[in-house]
Amino acid sequence: MNQSYMPNEIIVADDGSRALTKELIKQLRTKFSVPVHHVWHEDKGFRKSLILNKAVKVASSEYIVQIDGDVILDSNFIKDHLSVVETKTFIRGTRAHIKEELLPSIFEEKRVHFSYYNKGIKNRFNALRIPFMAWVFTKKRSCSKSVRGCNVAFWKKDFVAVNGYSNDLQGWGHEDEELAARLVNSGVMRKGLKLKAIQYHITHRIASRKQENKHEFSLRKTLEENIKRCQNGYHEIHPVPQVPQLEMI
């Protein structure tokens, strides 16, 4: 992680990968100056909500910057997020996309540095970093629309207060937006972030969307009924052992 400002800790929320990932993380631990925790559970399909609740459970920091595993971060990503921290808000960032045809050469060269000017970048405006202009987009709103977990940040206490992600939302779709809706319903404002905290999404095969209609129904219910806390979430996770290598069922 080539960051100009390092986080206090790194927590890998692993939704059931194989042993190779565990070995890679073990190697990476020696290269970081901060603790690296690996939170894993068995592969039983797309259980992002559950593994993220488990990961937040072990976080010792009061403030959490959350990303997905398929993004490449600008070197000032963490620094930019921390520059807009404010109580009773959560951050909704954006992402640029790397075109699929460029991926073979990127992986071969192990490229991790990109910019607005590179060829093969989609949503190019989201790759533009102009910190002194970011205030134009850093507005607080009572809105959960289009919140994506690849680039969000929140206070752990706010996350815990709404009971985190809903464990009932298994499969792809809208789990981040549903969490954001409960945060907004609880009085936590969404704060936009653009021209800062740049990230590049690696294009990949789309996950199954069989559960999307069910998830959309849950989201609508949360919005219409002003639900502030899910019934099956963070607090329903069993106690987490505080060990260097965390493997949780």
From TrEMBL:
Where the record annotates domain Glycosyltransferase 2-like, the positions are 2-110
What keywords are annotated for this sequence in UniProt? Transferase
What would you give as a GO molecular function for this chain, any one? transferase activity
State whether keyword Oxidoreductase applies: no
Keyword hit for Membrane: no
**What sequence ranges are listed for the domain Galactosyltransferase C-terminal?**
139-204
Q: Which residues cross the membrane?
A: none
Name-wise, this protein is: Glycosyl transferase family 2
Origin organism is: Olivibacter domesticus
